[in-house]
Design goal:
By secondary structure, the chain is mainly β. The protein has a single domain, classed as Beta Barrel (OB fold (Dihydrolipoamide Acetyltransferase, E2P)). Helix content is about 15%, strand content about 45%. The strands form two sheets. Strands 8-1-2-11-10-9 form a six-stranded mixed β-sheet. Strands 3-6-7-5-4 form a five-stranded mixed β-sheet. Strand 4 and strand 5 form a beta hairpin.
């Protein structure tokens, strides 16, 4: 089988004017924003916690985690319920706030270009590649760099 023809499903979403995608195998579900409960002494990027059918999930501002301006919630705002795993196969579910959840698309590995390389950008950037669709660029997000296990540990401390 030709490795270049292997397709993978990605969920696309927007943060401000920027388009992002992440592999659907990290996404448990996409839900509308419900009531947020603030948590004292939580990190700035943590919007609070939400109750998702009896499960309490930390809700993170994806824009702030990427160094973008703080999210302003609208009727189109959505929560991506993500499964974050560390190297020990431990996992934690979190809610990641996005401006608009778009669609699921199939991308083959040959359609994804490598992330730009300059100084330390490629090694520190939270993207694994990009798709250029006639000038409309979608960044492929590296979820482990955006929401690291050290963040998860910090979140667990604020919740306990």
């Amino acid at each position: 089988m030709n490795i270049e023809n292997i397709s993978k499903a990605y969920l696309t979403f927007t943060l401000g004017d920027e388009k992002f995608a992440l592999p659907v195998d990290h996404v448990q579900e996409v839900v509308e924003l419900e009531q947020i409960t603030k948590v004292p002494h939580a990190p700035e990027y943590m919007l609070g916690i939400i109750n998702l059918r009896g499960r309490v999930l930390p809700l993170l501002d994806t824009k702030q985690k990427l160094g973008l301006p703080k999210t302003q919630t609208t009727k189109k705002s959505r929560v991506l319920v993500l499964d974050i795993q560390d190297g020990d196969e431990k996992s934690l579910q979190i809610g990641a706030m996005v401006d608009v959840a778009k669609e699921v698309i199939e991308l083959s590995s040959r359609e994804i270009q490598e992330a730009p390389e300059f100084e330390n950008y490629k090694t520190s950037a939270p993207i694994t590649g990009l798709v250029n669709n006639h000038g409309d660029i979608t960044l492929i997000m590296d979820i482990r760099k955006v929401f690291s296990m050290s963040d998860v540990t910090e979140l667990n401390k604020s919740l306990n």
